[in-house]
Amino acid sequence: MFNQLIIFVAFILAVFSFMIVYESKKFVNFAIISFFIMYLIPKESFFFAFSITVIVLFSLMNTKYSINKLKFILPLFSFYALVFIFTGDGITKEYLIGMVRVVGFQFIIVTLCALFVRDYSDLKMFLKSLLIILFVSYIMIGFYQYYTGVVLSPWIDESDILVYTKIYDLNRFRSFLDIHPANSANGILFVICLTFYGLIEKNKTKIIIFTFALIALFLTFTRMAYIAFFLLVLLFVVMNASKNWIKISFAVFILILLIVPLFVVGQDIFSYSIRLVSDINIYGRINIWETFFLNISKYLFGQGYFNNTRVAYFISSSSENYFIQEFINYGVFSIILYFVIIMKFFKNLAVSKPEIEKKTIVLMFFAFVFNMMGATYSQNMLFLVFGLSFSYANVVQNYQQLPIKYSIEK
Asked: What is the 3-state secondary structure (H, E, C) of 167-226?
């Protein structure tokens, strides 16, 4: 009964929002509201009901435009859905519901970005709003939970938190809706990527947000997240090598000023923590990955998303690497799926201007890739970045003042 009420409320909110937003023609607000719900309201059904309603209403009133924007996305996710079903345990009600919760969720994320971010002002507004939303969900609420020990998300069991955040001798930072600190690090790294250019521009607000994000990242005590951060800094410098070196040097100087005190203060933790220095913890993932590659033939056609496959003697299901886990789930089909996604991602970003937004999206993509080399379930973040590439592709046409083949119907 409660779920039905949630869906009804979301539907009514969507209809009223549609009436207001459609009148103003600022369709990017649909995406902003949807992502606000996704990251700050711990109820999937609310996000589904709101987002699907505004997408359907918009598509009915702008059919040609929507078909044009979704002509790649719909076939891709149809293939994804077929792979999900084919590699699973058969067509059952439970598995179909699971497919909607996984594939459907990611389809909505990409569709929101592709349909509603249409020009340069939309993209700037969307990225700024996304920064605020992620900062609140992943960092502000994360700090509250870290220092109070109170879990705000009602559907997360307190005992689950203890398993992931206090299993050794550390109290680890975690965000609002992600149980595992390694997955929380994805959102934190995204915030860092969205503020990198604020360091060059000497934007005080972004420098403050960046500082809090860096402290939060440190408190996850996740080695792969640390490595990902330093690789992102290196990538940032390389990507901007042709720019003003005074500004780049200033940005790097700010980074050093922020990083060094953190690691000086935390040196005792790094020296004595069982989690960070134990042989089992350091070599555990290597053991898992070695076992996977020795038995790769077992996974050629996938074990299904909800598999219980033992990758190693002490691990069930999770392989501690996103890309290996996707191969376990979907077999060779995952290679096809992600090859198409990556090729389309970079094709969408093929034009160089607007430059800062393009580089920010690329940094977010590599933040996910680097961090998920040592963690598993956080694929929604990848599809958010994939969706942003479609937003950028929309913007390029407008930014260069090219004729738009499909305009919003009046």
From this structure: CCCCCCCCCCCCCCHHHHHHHHHHHHHHHHHHHHCCCHHHHHHHHHHHHHHHHCCCHHHH
In DSSP notation, 29-93 reads: HHHHHHHHHHHHS--HHHHHHHHHHHHHHHHHHSHHHHHHHTTTHHHHHHHHHHHHHHTTT-S-H
Are 263 and 276 in contact by the 8 Å Cβ rule? The answer is no
Cα 212 to Cα 382: distance, rounded to the nearest angstrom:
23
Cβ distance 14 to 50 under 8 Å?
A: yes
Rg (CA), the chain: 22
DSSP one-letter code for 240: T
The structure tokens listed for 87 are: 């590699």
The answer to whether the Cα torsion of 285, 288, 290, 292 is positive or negative is negative
The reply to whether 47 falls in a domain is: yes
User: Are 326 and 309 a contacting pair, CB within 8 Å?
Assistant: no
258 lies in a domain? no
Is 318:372 a contact under the CB 8 Å cutoff? no
Number of domains in the chain: 1
| Whole-number Å distance between alpha carbons of 265 and 295 | 43
Angle, CA of 131, 135 and 139, to the nearest 5°: 160
pLDDT digits (tens, 9 = 90+) for 364-410: 999 999 888 877 767 789 999 999 999 999 887 655 544 444 344 43
Of the candidates 229, 233, 230, 228, the residue with the CA atom closest to the CA atom of residue 251: 233
Angle at 269 between CA 264 and CA 275, to 5 degrees: 145
Helix (H) or strand (E) holding 393: helix 379-399
- For residues 50 and 10, the answer to whether their CB atoms sit within 8 Å is yes
For tokens 């090729």, name the residue: 343
In a domain, 188, yes or no: no
pLDDT band at 44 (very low <50, low <70, confident <90, very high): confident
Give the residue with greater pLDDT, 408 vs 88.
88
Domain region containing 47: 1-116
Q: Which residues, 6 or more positions from 191, have their beta carbon under 8 angstroms from its beta carbon?
A: 131, 134, 135, 138, 139, 209, 210, 213
Residue 290 forms part of a structural domain: no
Helix (H) or strand (E) holding 349: none
SS3 285: helix
pLDDT tens per residue, range 134-174: 999 999 998 988 888 777 766 555 554 444 444 444 577 88
